[in-house]
Amino acid sequence: MQQISTARLVLICAGLYVIAVLTSTCSSSKPAPAPPHAPELWGDMKPVVSVKELMRDMLDPIADNIFDAVKIVQTEQGTVETVPKTDEDWEKIRIGAVTLAEGAYLLKIPRPFAPPGDLNNSTGPDAVELAPAQITAKVEKDPVEWNARIEALRNVGLEVLDIVKRKDVNELWDASENLDKACENCHRSYWYPGEDDSFYQKLSRRLQEHREQPSHSDGTVKSPK
Ligand code: HEC
Are 186 and 215 in contact (CB under 8 A)? Predict the structure, then answer.
């Protein structure tokens, strides 16, 4: 086999380099069409827990970073108002906002609504909650509403993020209300649609019956769930 001289090799390499540069400049003028089945994610997304556990162990506790940042609590000494003051206070709110805004999309991954065998409070005469299978059926029938509820939660996360940048306490009060609504609206539709007006009438009747007993509440005014 004939030996290629070093000089010639360098020439070949240089030639190849020029071709490579030329083709890349040419092709960069018109963007390459996206491959037909471009994945929207960089990989699979696999759920770890049910919706119920995602609520209990992630979205609910982290929402408290926002709910607890602005609140009014009645104590025996009087009314105590909490608002964010230090950079650390605002940082905690930002952590809540980012986790809610990003975490909301975890609700788009199909996952069981409750752990196996957990039927929610869906049996018995006073049952107000849907069973996990009923929630699944409702979401499958109208995924548009489910996604809209998720977007609503995400939007409050984005709103709070913006407020943190401006450290606007007044707006944070409103955003906390909005957050409460974003949680509640989804719960009322998917989790406990049985909690209608008649449910609350029954509840207040029952509360009246128990009024004589002393309450052990800590007096927290705002404790949304
Ligand atoms: C897109 C709908 C949706 C949004 C938004 C949502 N949730 Fe939920 N949440 C559910 C559903 C559905 C369940 C009931 C799942 C089940 O038990 O089958 C639930 C259950 C819960 C539970 C009960 C967990 C348990 O251990 O019983 C808590 C607490 C909760 N959510 C808190 C929140 C809070 C706080 C927010 C707002 C920051 C929120 N959720 C926003 C759909 C939602």
Answer: no
| CATH code: domain of residue 63 | 1.20.120
Q: How do the residues of the chain divide into helix, strand and coil, expressed in percent and rounded to 5?
A: 60, 5, 35
Give the chain's domain count.
Answer: 1
Residue 211 within any structural domain of the chain: no
Q: Given a cut of 90, is residue 211 above it in pLDDT?
A: no
In a domain, 10, yes or no: no
Which of 186, 192, 223, 225 to mutate for ligand 1's pocket (most ligand atoms within 8 Å of CB)?
Answer: 186
Single-letter amino acid code for the residue at 197: D
Residue 224 has what pLDDT? 45
Ligand 1 contacts (CB < 6 A) are 51-52, 55-56, 59-60, 63, 107, 113-114, 120, 132, 135, 149-150, 153, 179, 182-183, 186-187, 190-191, 225
107 and 151 Cβ atoms separated by less than 8 Å: no
Distance CA 182, CA 176 (A): 10
What is the predicted pLDDT for the residue at 141? 96
Tokens of 60: 């609910």
Ligand 1 centroid distance, CA of 211 (Å): 29
CA proximity to 151, closest of 116, 183, 115, 104:
104
**Ranges 21-35, 100-114, 190-204, 208-222, most confident:** 100-114
